[in-house]
Specification:
- Two copies of one chain form a homodimer.
- Chain A is of the alpha+beta class.
- In chain A, about 30% of the residues lie in helices and about 25% in strands.
- Among the domains of chain A are: about 15-150, Sandwich (Jelly Rolls), CATH 2.60.120.260; about 155-260, Galactose-binding domain-like (Jelly Rolls, Sandwich); about 600-675, Maltose phosphorylase, domain 3 (Sandwich), CATH 2.60.420.
- Chain A contains 15 helices and 34 strands.
- In chain A, strands 13, 14, 15, 16, 17, 18, 19 and 20 form an eight-stranded antiparallel beta sheet that branches. A five-stranded antiparallel beta sheet of chain A has the order 6-8-4-10-11, with no helix packed on it. In chain A, strands 21-29-30-31-34 form a five-stranded antiparallel beta sheet, with helices on one face.
- In chain A, a hairpin with a 2-residue loop joins strand 25 (about 470-475) and strand 26.
- The longest helix of chain A has 22 residues, at about 440-460.
Chain lengths: ~675, ~675
C-alpha cells in the first residue's frame, strides 16, 4: 500500500445523520422575536451522546495513530474492553485487529478523527449507538477533514461588507447596506461606553419603527474594545444604531456578511433587462437562504421547512448544484425515530420529502446517498400509509396540518393534491426500493402508486369542468376546481393528452379559477404552464409578478406578493406589521423556471448521464446561459435565427422545432458547439 | 382561594421522564476503568431540548409571577406567540388566560419553576415536546421545589468520614475506612506540590496491586489549597495515596461519604447474632447501591440493570420504602422510543421491568404512577410480542442476550424461565390496562397470559422428573431440569399443589440439580423455598452463604460468591483480577427474605390496604422487627411461645399455626398489640 502522508485522507466521522441533526437543532433555535427565543413548532431531534466506532485493520508492522475525539473517548483492541486507553497516541500492533473507540459527548456530536499511515478515519468505518446495529459512518470529507476543526466547530464563511450609506440621525446612526443581507452587524471605532440598541429592518418602514421591528439587539459596550461585532447573525437591509449615552461615538458601521461558500455554476443573460434583473435577484435571494440547510427566510423563521426545501432543491440544481446542502437538509428534515407527526407537522411536507429524494437522485445520480436513506423512507412511508382512511387516501387526522398553500381554501377531507403527492411519493419508494434491491417492495409500492393514480382520476376528475376538483369531504365531492391538483398532475405527467388540453384552458389559463398569491405555489403553477408550452405567458407573468416586486424596490424576493396590495400592506403578515419575510427562498423560483424551461436543460437519466436541452425563447429576442449538468455544464444560446448548445458531460440531445415540426439532434460529446439554424 | 405565600407550593416541572432520563445518561457514564471512560453497552437516551409548558388560569385580579427556567425561555399568553417575553417577572392580566412557556436547553432538561400567589408550577401543568401531544408534567415536589436548585443541579448528600486507620507506607499513605464505602476521597493539610496517584481497593489485595486495581485517580496538586477533594465518587474500602514528589506532605485523609438520604424504616433483631450481622450488612450494602437509581454495584459498573433493579425494588419495600428511587429507576430503564433492543439489551431484563411495575403497584398502591407508565408498557410489550416465534414464545433473536444467570446453562431457543416471566408480564399488562380503563386490552392480555401459562405447563413440565425443564431448542425438548423456571413458577403461583410438592423435593431441595452460585438467583431460589415452607433450610443457607462472606471479611455483600473458591479467586471476575464487585445490590437479598418470609409481612392488596403477617421462626429462638407497610409500619415479635404484632396502617391479619392447624386473627386497627400464645 502506498500512501502519501501529506495527502489529506483522514477525516471526521460520526453517527450517520447525527451531525446534521445536531446542527439543525442548533440553528433552529436561532429564530428570535425582538431578542426573545422562538423555537420551532415541531420536535427537535438530538444526536446520540454515546457511540462506538469500529474498524478492522491489517498491518504488516506496528503503527502509531493519533486519536482526536470531540468528547471523551476510550480505545481498545479486539473487544478487550477491560484494557482500554484514552491516550491521544496509540501504538497499534501488527496483524489483523479490531479497533474500537467509544466516544461520549452530550453537548456536541461525539465525532472521531484518527490519523495514521494506514489506519485513519474514513467512510469505511462503522458506528453504533449501542442499539446492536452497525451503520456506515457519516462524514463530510471535503470540509471536515482537519483534526483541529471538529464538526461541532463548523461555521459558515464571513466577509466584511460596508454599507451603501450611513446617516447620523437624531439619536444615533442609520446604515443602509443597499440591499438585503445576512450577517453580524459591527460597530467600529468605539469611543465611550454605553448601552446600545440596534433596530433592524428589511424595509425603511421596519427599521424606523422601533416598537415593532422584528429584530433588534441590545448590548452594553464598556468602551474597552475598538470595535464590536454583534453575536447573532441577522437578516436586514437597514440597521439603526442608537446609544443610550449621548457621549458615545463610533467611526463607522459595517457587517460581516455570512454565507455558505458555493460555486455559482449557472448564468443567464437575455434581451430583456428586467428578466435579467429578476434572475440575478433570484440567485441572490436564493444564496441568502442557502446555508447550513435550505432555510425558508432569514429574517423571521430561519427554519427548515420541507415544502420550501423541496423547491430550493430544484433551484439549487439550476444554480449552485451543491449536493451537500441538499443532503444535510433531507437528513435534518427527516430527523429521528419515532415518527409521531408529519415533517414540520404538515402532511404535505412529509410527502415533499419523498419528492425531494426523487429529484436529488434524478439530478445528481448519487445512488449511495439515496440508498442510505431507504430505511428512513420506509419508516416515514409506513407512518403515512398508516394514516390513510378507509378509501386508502390520506387526509388530515388528529392534529395534522394540511397546508397546500396560504390561500382561502378548505383542506378538510381528501384533498386531491395530497393524493397526487402521495402517489409521487410511492413512485419514489418503488424507485429506491429497486436501487437497494428490495424486490418485493418495488412491486408493492408500484402497485399502490398505480391504484392510487387510477383512484385520483376516477374520483376527482370533473369532465364537465375539465379538471381535478379540490377535495372530497365526508363522501361529498367538491365541485370547486383549484389549480393545485391540476398543476401537480401536469408536472408529474399524470394526465393524458386530452386532459392536458382541457386543464390548460379550463384551469391553468382560466381567470375564473382562484389566483395563486404566493411565490411558493406560483413556482409549480408556472412550471406546469411551461410543461404545456405556455412560455410566453409564463414570461409575462414573471415580468409582471417578480418585476412587480422589483418595481417596489425589492432587492430580494418575498414570501408573498399580492399586486393588489399597496404600501405597508406589502410588509404585513401573521398579524405583525413587518411579519412578511422580504427574502424568502421560495421567492427565487425564476432560477428554476428559466433554467429548466427557457434554457431548457433537463436530466433524462440520473446524474445527467442522459439529458435533453429544449430551449424556448418564449417571446424573448435572445438569451444565453449556463446550467450545471452534474459534473459538467451545458451552455445554451438562442435567438430567433439559431440555437447553439454545448455540454461537457453526458449524452444529450437538442430538441427544437423547425417549421412547427419537432426535431432532435445529438449534442457532441467532445464538448464542441452544436449550432442549429432555425430559419 | 386562600394561600399562604410562605407555604412551599411551587416546584420544578419538566417533560415527564426527562429529568430521570437525563440523570440516567449522566450517571451511566461515570463508570471508569483506571480513569478511562467505560460507557454502558446500551443506547443512552436523552431529554428533549425544546419543550413547551401550558397552564390555563383564572385570576380575579392581575398577579405578578416570577419565572425561573433551566434554559432559555419565552412566555406568552393566549397563543399570541408573536408577543413573547423573556422577562423574569411577568404581570398576568386578570380573567381566564392560557399561559405558554417554551424552554430550550440542550445540556440540561429544560425545567420550569414559576412562583406567584395563585399561578405557580405544580403537577396540574401540561407539557409538550412539540409532537402535538400534551402530557402531565414530571416533578419531584418533595425535593425539587426551590427555584434556586434546578433539577439538573440535584446532588446526593455527603458527610465527611474519617478512616479507621491511616498508615505511612514506603512512598505514601494507606487509608482503611474500615468497611466498604462510596464517596469522594479528600486529602487534608497539604504541604508542597506534587502529582498524586490514588489507588483504590475494595480489598487489601486490590489496593496494593497498583497495576491492576480497577479504580485510580491521578491529579497534580499545586499546593495552593489546604485540602483537595477528588472530583469522582469512588467505591472502596482502602485508598493508597502516592505522591510523586518526596517533599509532599499531608496531615490526613478523609472522604466525603456520598449517599441518598433515605429513612431506615425496617429493623431486625434475632437470637442469632450472625443473622443479625447479615441483615445489617445487607441493609448497608443495599444503601450504598441505592442512589439516583438502584445501581448494580458501585465499584465497577455503577450502572442501572433491570434484573438487578427488580430485586432492589423488593428489598426497598422491606427497608427504605422509598417510592422515588423506584420510580426514577423504572423511568430510566424504560428510556425513550423507539424500542429497538431489550432493556440493557437483555431479553429477561425487559420482562423484569414489567414485574417491577407489578410489585411497585402491589407494595405502594401508587396508581397514578403506574397509569402514567401504561403507554410505555404497551410499547415495550408490543416489542416483546413482536419478537415471539411461531409458537408464540419468546427466544433470543438477532443479537438478544438471554441472560437468566451467570451459570453454565444453555439459553438457546425457548427458555422456560423466559416464558414464565413473559406470562407474569402479560398479567401485569392486564392489571394496568384495567387501572387505566383499557377494557379490550384487559381481556386480550389476560387471554394471552392464560394461553401461555397452559403452554408452559404442557410443554416444559416433565412429570417423570417432577419439574419444568430448562428449554426447547429447534423443537427438541431438553430433559435438563434447572432451578430457574421452577422457582419462578413457584413464586408466581403457577403450580398446583401436586406440582409444588414434586418441585420442592425433586428440584429445589435436590442436590443433583445444578447449584446456583450468584446471590442474584439465590434471591429467587431462597424466596421460592420459603414459599414452600422451607424456612429452616433457608435460614441455614443464609447463615452459611452470607455468613461465609462475612467470615471472609466482607463488609458488604458480593456480586458472586462460590464457597468452593479460595483466596484471590474470590476477587476475580470478567477476566480481571479484581473484576468482582464486593458491594453488589443483589447481594443484599436477606433484607427481603427476612422481611417477607421470617417477619412474614406481605401486602394482600395494593398499598398494604390489606396485608398478612405470617411470621416464621425457621429455627430461630426469637426475633423482633419492623417492616414498612406503605404509610405505616408493622412490628413483629416472635418466639417459641408467642407472636406479638401491631400495625399502624391498613387492615391486616395474622396467620399462624397452633398444633399444626392454620389460624387467622385480625390485627387491631387502632395500632395496639395483638399477642397470640403458641403453647
Amino acid at each position: 500500500m502506498k500512501n502519501d502522508l501529506n495527502e489529506k485522507k483522514a477525516y471526521w466521522i460520526w453517527y450517520p445523520g447525527d451531525w446534521e441533526v445536531w446542527l439543525h437543532e442548533q440553528v433552529s433555535i436561532k429564530r428570535q422575536w425582538r431578542e426573545v427565543m422562538y423555537p420551532p413548532y415541531w420536535r427537535l431531534d438530538r444526536h446520540y451522546s454515546s457511540v462506538i466506532y469500529t474498524y478492522t485493520y491489517h498491518l504488516t508492522q506496528p503503527e502509531e495513530i493519533t486519536i482526536t475525539a470531540d468528547g471523551r473517548f476510550a480505545a481498545y483492541l479486539d473487544g478487550k474492553d477491560n484494557q482500554r486507553s484514552n491516550a491521544e497516541k496509540m501504538m497499534l500492533p501488527e496483524g489483523k485487529h479490531e479497533l474500537s473507540i467509544t466516544v461520549y459527548n452530550d453537548v456536541n456530536p461525539p465525532a472521531l478523527h484518527i490519523e495514521g499511515e494506514h489506519v485513519y478515519t474514513n467512510n469505511t468505518w462503522q458506528v453504533s449507538c449501542y442499539d446492536k446495529k452497525w451503520s456506515p459512518v457519516g462524514s463530510w470529507k471535503e470540509q471536515l477533514d482537519a483534526s483541529s476543526l471538529a464538526p461541532s466547530q463548523y461555521k459558515l464563511a464571513t466577509e466584511e461588507h460596508q454599507p451603501a450609506s450611513i446617516e447620523k440621525t437624531e439619536d444615533g446612526w442609520m446604515a443602509d447596506f443597499g440591499k438585503e443581507t445576512v450577517g453580524y452587524l459591527k460597530v467600529n471605532g468605539i469611543d465611550g461606553k454605553s448601552r446600545l440598541t440596534v433596530y433592524y429592518g428589511e424595509s425603511m418602514e421596519e427599521v424606523e419603527d422601533r416598537e415593532n421591528c422584528v429584530l433588534l439587539d441590545n448590548v452594553f459596550l464598556d468602551g474597552e474594545s475598538e470595535d464590536y461585532t454583534f453575536p447573532a447573525s441577522r437578516a436586514f437591509r437597514y440597521a439603526q444604531v442608537v446609544p443610550e449615552s449621548e457621549d458615545f461615538q463610533i467611526d463607522s458601521i459595517s457587517m460581516l456578511y455570512e454565507y455558505l461558500p458555493v460555486e455559482y455554476r449557472s448564468n443567464f443573460q437575455s434581451s430583456n433587462d428586467l428578466l435579467n434583473d429578476i434572475w440575478k435577484t433570484s440567485v441572490y435571494t436564493f444564496h441568502l437562504n442557502t446555508r447550513e440547510f435550505f432555510f425558508d427566510g432569514m429574517k423571521r423563521d430561519r427554519w427548515v421547512w420541507s415544502g420550501d426545501a423541496h423547491q430550493s432543491f430544484l433551484m439549487n440544481y439550476y444554480s449552485f448544484f451543491d449536493h451537500d446542502v441538499v443532503k444535510r437538509t433531507l437528513i435534518a428534515l427527516r430527523g429521528k425515530e419515532p415518527i409521531v407527526t408529519h415533517i414540520n407537522t404538515i402532511l404535505d411536507y412529509s410527502l415533499y420529502w419523498f419528492t425531494g429524494i426523487y429529484d436529488y437522485y434524478l439530478y445528481t445520480g448519487d445512488v449511495e446517498f439515496v440508498k442510505s436513506q431507504y430505511n428512513s423512507m420506509v419508516s416515514l412511508m409506513d407512518f403515512c400509509l398508516g394514516r390513510r382512511n378507509a378509501e386508502d387516501m390520506m387526509e388530515g387526522i388528529e392534529e395534522d396540518w394540511v397546508f397546500v398553500d396560504w390561500a382561502d381554501i378548505d383542506n378538510k377531507g381528501e384533498v386531491s393534491t395530497i393524493q397526487i403527492l402521495l402517489c409521487r411519493s410511492l413512485e419514489t419508494m418503488a424507485l429506491v426500493a429497486e436501487l437497494v434491491g428490495d424486490k418485493d417492495s418495488v412491486q408493492n409500492y408500484h402497485d399502490q402508486a398505480s391504484e392510487l393514480k387510477e383512484k385520483i382520476m376516477s374520483i376527482f376528475w370533473n369532465e364537465n369542468k375539465g379538471g381535478l376538483v379540490h377535495s372530497r369531504y365526508n363522501g361529498v365531492l367538491s365541485d370547486e376546481i383549484t389549480k393545485y391538483p391540476n398543476m401537480f398532475a401536469l408536472l408529474f405527467g399524470y394526465f393524458n393528452d386530452q386532459q392536458i388540453d382541457k386543464v390548460k384552458n379550463n384551469v391553468m389559463l382560466n381567470s375564473e379559477v382562484q389566483a395563486i398569491k404566493t411565490p411558493y405555489m406560483r413556482f409549480f403553477e408556472l412550471a406546469a404552464l411551461c410543461e404545456v408550452g405556455e412560455h410566453q405567458f409564463v414570461l409575462d407573468e414573471m415580468l409582471s409578478y417578480w418585476g412587480g416586486m422589483l418595481a417596489l424596490g425589492a432587492t430580494s424576493f418575498w414570501e408573498e406578493y399580492d399586486p393588489n396590495q399597496s404600501g405597508r400592506q406589502h410588509l404585513e403578515m401573521y398579524n405583525m406589521p413587518y411579519g412578511k419575510s422580504l427574502c424568502h427562498a421560495w421567492g427565487a423560483s425564476p432560477i428554476y423556471l428559466i433554467g429548466k424551461y427557457f434554457l431548457g436543460v433537463t436530466p433524462a437519466s440520473p446524474g445527467y448521464e442522459n439529458f435533453v436541452i429544449e430551449p424556448q425563447l418564449g417571446g424573448l429576442d435572445w438569451f444565453e446561459g449556463t446550467v450545471p449538468i452534474g459534473i459538467g455544464d451545458a451552455e445554451v444560446y438562442m435567438d430567433k435565427e439559431k440555437i447553439r448548445v454545448k455540454a461537457s458531460h453526458g449524452e444529450g440531445v437538442l430538441r427544437y422545432k423547425l417549421n412547427e415540426e419537432p426535431h432532435e439532434t445529438p449534442i457532441p460529446t467532445d464538448g464542441s458547439w452544436l449550432e442549429i439554424p432555425l430559419i
